Amino acid sequence: MTIMGKTFTVDPLSHRRIPNMGEENKYLVEKHHKAIRSDEVWEKAQEILSQRSRNYNKGTRNGPFRRMYPFSGITFCSFCGSLATRKNWTRKESQKKAWYCSVSIKRGKKYCKHSKPLPEDVIEKCFVDVYRILCSNNDVILKNFIAKASEILNKNDVEVIINKLNIREHDLRQKMKKLVDMKLENIIEEGIYKEKKLSIERKLQKIDEERSGLFEKVDQEKNIKKRVVEFRELLSNKDIMPEFDADVFKILVDKIIIGEVDVDGNYDPYVVSFLLKSDIKEALQPQILEETPHKKIHKEI
């Protein structure tokens, strides 16, 4: 696609050319030259770029830095909502890793004045305490979790729907093939050919979109099945976790919130809240859940 007439000649004597700001007509020429990339590749690239942009604006990161450390990409400041970042924390001639509010680090303390750095080992100790609470009721939790997961899996007949979509796609491609043959044999006119071709292409695109969403559901089902196995093995182990285990943490926790504002409006930066993954959270009894969301750690710092 090329725009013609972006400049024009003022007069034939001076041959001076200036930008066309509306003085002359402009023309848009499609398929003027062979594209470097096909339209399909271009649209797919734009979709990927758009998704990455949305993820960045939400504060989530992809790629190798997304989960470089167990707490990477899932730890947030409760006061400003931004991601927490991992940095060195020097105190009394000793240095250790701590998690800081990224707004406070990048823009200055005044933009998130209530946040405080939280040592990484303190967060790990808090999770060990949360895990012990869960393990004290492991039989009930495991039973509820497996029942919930089985209910979700039984409701989904995704593979049947995908097979039906594949059959519809095959039929449409056969129609497209016949349509092209009719065009080559000059059985139908150019206008009718383009109209029917566009209709079939739109139907095929709709099938692709529906199938992509269903593939995501298939992946979710596989993740649930895998989670059931992992959770069964995890809670069937009667040994209480002596120290922080990153693999156990990844199975259980979806997000960490640092800091809290109580009902009286008081700011407490030394509160850690662990938000459990949705399928595990739903398997917990209400009385267990009340004990697990957050832990105050004044004595640890």
How is this fold's topology laid out?
Layout: E1 2-4, E2 7-9, E3 17-19, E4 27-29, H1 39-58, E5 75-77, E6 84-91, E7 94-101, H2 102-106, E8 118-119, H3 120-135, H4 138-155, H5 158-184, H6 190-236, H7 246-252, E9 253-261, E10 267-276, H8 278-283, H9 286-291, E11 294-296
Parallel strand pairs: 5-9
Antiparallel strand pairs: 1-4, 2-3, 6-7, 7-8, 9-10, 10-11
Task: Characterise this structure.
The protein is α+β, with helices and mostly antiparallel strands and 301 residues long. The chain has three domains: 1-34, no CATH class; 57-137 and 240-300, no CATH class; 152-236, Helix Hairpins (Orthogonal Bundle), CATH 1.10.287. It contains nine helices and eleven strands. It has helices spanning 39-58, 102-106, 120-135, 138-155, 158-184, 190-236, 246-252, 278-283, 286-291, and strands at residues 2-4, 7-9, 17-19, 27-29, 75-77, 84-91, 94-101, 118-119, 253-261, 267-276, 294-296. The strands form four sheets. It has a four-stranded mixed beta sheet with strand order 5-9-10-11. The protein has a three-stranded antiparallel beta sheet with strand order 6-7-8. It has a two-stranded antiparallel ribbon with strand order 1-4. β9 (253-261) and β10 (267-276) form a beta hairpin. The chain is flat.
